Task: inverse folding
């Protein structure tokens, strides 16, 4: 049977019924989240909130995300991942539904919005590691790379482009609370899709029953930590990504808008265009990755792609025109997406019993230092301070990559789905004929 190629290769994971349901739930929930990003500030303002109260709402979601992510990893390894994801979606549906009910009664206040935002952040922290750990249970290993590329395409389209645009249109036509209702419905439909996944029919490396049996065994947290620190490539790359996010998040999220406004004479539309270019480049990268076979030197290409995406930050602060930022944003969007897809696929090869906790530790390593990066970017003023942070943010990842390549043998890591040659077993002489068992899906 010929292997999938080009576009067919990128869509190959959708051959499997359970993954189609899971992918549909992912698509719908991501679209709702993109709409939520636009609706949230308008709801807060309609309730009479000022900038400090809006910051409190946004901060509550971030606190829920960071504080519950390790709990999400434990639940993903302790309970069936289908249930963890479904109940997380149901919790988000309930929180947004309560906001809607209170709004209809007419007593909605900012503190209630803060509580709902915390629940949404906590639900994302619990469903995220479980979702990442669940994908290998739904598709065979040779389709894992394409599945992550497909999910990356959806995430870029919904969170950066379609979702925010749809939210803006709906708010202009209806009102912001109606968009909140739409997001609640999206979580309800996503939970229903997950509930329709049939136990025991997954096409992954283990059946749902086997995965459930493994996940219910009491595995101590120290076993996950023992595995993590026993695999040098794993913990080194988690530390690498955390340090790079510390170096880059603040300049990109806090200082770049001021660079566009104060130094290059741009406005909010220019900043929006920059984000759109980043999103388009990310979509292009995801589509290309999904259509191509993974390279043999998988982990090394991943690290080099991340580095190529990080390096242009050092040049952004020196450009004389806003238009020169656009190709740099495209480079960042393209290569950072390549690295992220490779990493998502690679970390999903972790053994199932500890996969959820390892992924949650990776999430925590990525999330925990982002607020610190924003604080560092906000404490200084002046051109010299901005230049220093941009240059360090673009050059230090290159040095970290060179050190990592010398210390960790990334070439020894096998790309997911690569066939491993095994010696043929000798056929016993005078074997009784047997009826072939039906294939296991």
Result:
């Amino acid at each position: 049977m010929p292997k999938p190629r080009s576009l067919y290769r990128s869509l190959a994971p959708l051959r499997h019924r359970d993954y189609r349901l899971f992918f549909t739930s992912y698509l719908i929930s991501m679209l709702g989240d993109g709409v939520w990003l636009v609706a949230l500030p308008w709801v807060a303002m309609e309730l009479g909130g000022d900038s400090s109260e809006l910051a409190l709402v946004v901060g509550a979601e971030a606190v829920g995300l960071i504080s519950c992510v390790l709990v999400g990893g434990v639940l993903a390894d302790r309970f069936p991942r289908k249930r963890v994801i479904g109940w997380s979606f149901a919790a988000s549906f309930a929180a947004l539904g309560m906001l809607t009910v209170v709004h209809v009664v007419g007593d909605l206040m900012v503190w209630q919005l803060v509580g709902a935002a915390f629940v949404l952040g906590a639900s994302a922290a619990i469903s995220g590691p479980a979702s990442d750990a669940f994908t290998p249970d739904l598709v065979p290993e040779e389709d894992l790379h394409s599945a992550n590329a497909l999910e990356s395409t959806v995430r870029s389209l919904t969170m950066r482009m379609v979702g925010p645009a749809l939210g803006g249109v709906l708010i202009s036509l209806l009102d912001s609370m109606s968009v909140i209702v739409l997001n609640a419905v999206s979580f309800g439909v996503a939970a229903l899709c997950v509930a329709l996944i049939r136990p025991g029919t997954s096409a992954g490396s283990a059946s749902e029953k086997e995965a459930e049996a493994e996940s219910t065994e009491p595995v101590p947290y120290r076993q996950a930590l023992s595995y993590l620190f026993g695999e040098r490539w794993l913990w080194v790359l988690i530390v690498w990504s955390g340090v790079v996010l510390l170096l880059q998040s603040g300049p990109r999220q806090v200082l770049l808008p001021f660079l566009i406004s104060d130094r290059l004479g741009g406005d909010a539309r220019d900043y929006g265009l920059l984000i759109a270019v980043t999103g388009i480049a990310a979509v292009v990268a995801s589509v290309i990755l999904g259509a191509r076979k993974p390279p043999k030197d998988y982990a090394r290409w991943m690290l080099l792609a991340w580095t190529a995406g990080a390096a242009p930050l050092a040049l952004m602060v020196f450009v004389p025109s806003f238009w020169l930022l656009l190709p740099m944003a495209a480079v960042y969007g393209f290569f950072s997406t390549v690295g992220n897809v490779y990493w998502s696929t690679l970390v999903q090869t972790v053994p199932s019993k500890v996969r959820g906790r390892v992924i949650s530790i990776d999430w925590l390593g990525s999330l925990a230092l982002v607020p610190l990066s924003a604080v560092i970017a906000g404490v200084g003023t002046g051109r010299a301070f901005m230049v220093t942070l941009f240059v360090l943010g673009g050059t230090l990842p290159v040095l970290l990559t060179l050190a990592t390549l010398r210390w960790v043998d990334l070439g020894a890591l096998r790309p997911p789905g690569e066939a491993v040659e095994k010696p043929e077993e000798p056929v016993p002489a005078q074997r009784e004929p047997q009826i072939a068992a039906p294939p296991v899906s």
The two ends are 16 Å apart (CA to CA). Confidence is low (pLDDT under 50) at residues 205-216, 419-441. The chain has two domains: 8-214, 221-416. Residues 8-214 form a domain with the Growth Hormone; Chain: A; fold (CATH 1.20.1250.20).
